[in-house]
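Progress report, Aim 2. The chain analyzed during this reporting quarter is listed below.
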Amino acid sequence: MKKCAIVTESASGIGRSIAETLANDGCDVVIADINENEGVQTAEEVGGLFVKSDLTSRESCRQLIEKAVTQYGRVDILVNNAGFQHVCPLEDFPEDKWDQMLSLMLTAPFLLTKYAWPYMKERRWGRVVNIASVHGLVASPYKVAYVSAKHGLLGLTRTGLWKAESTELQ
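Predicted C-alpha cells for the chain:
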C-alpha cells in the first residue's frame, strides 16, 4: 500500500523538491501551501492532492490532516518545511510578524504532528521530518523570529515525544 506524505510549503522551492522525490518514490503526496496557483500546478505534476493551507491557523492545520485522511485514508509521513525570513533589528521588529513567524514555523509543526500522530500510531508506522536549517543551531543578526522558531523546532524534535512511543510504531 502506498504511503501518504504531507509536505508543507511545497508549491515551490525545497518543499516542491521534497514532494517530487516522495512522489517519485511511490508516495501519495499532499501539497500544502498558501499559494493556490503554484500549489495546484505542483499537485498536478506530481499526481498529488493540493490543499490550500494557512498554517498560521489552527483550524487550517486540522483541516489539512483531515483532508489527507479523507483522500488517502492515512497519514504516514509529515514534512514540516514551511518558513520565511524577515530581517530587521530587534527594536524595529514588528510584533505581528513575530507572531506570524512563530505560528508558521513552530506552532504549526506542533499542531500538524499532534493531529497526524493518531493515524501514524494506528498503523504502527510514521515519520515526522522537521526542516530547521542551520539557523536551528546558530544565530544571525536581525533574524530574531526565524532563529527563535528554528531553535524551537529543534527543541520540539528533540523532546522525543514520539520516541517514547516509538515501540508502538515499529
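The beta strands are 4-8, 28-33, 49-52, 77-80, 127-130. The chain has one domain: 4-168. These observations will guide the mutagenesis work planned for the next reporting period.
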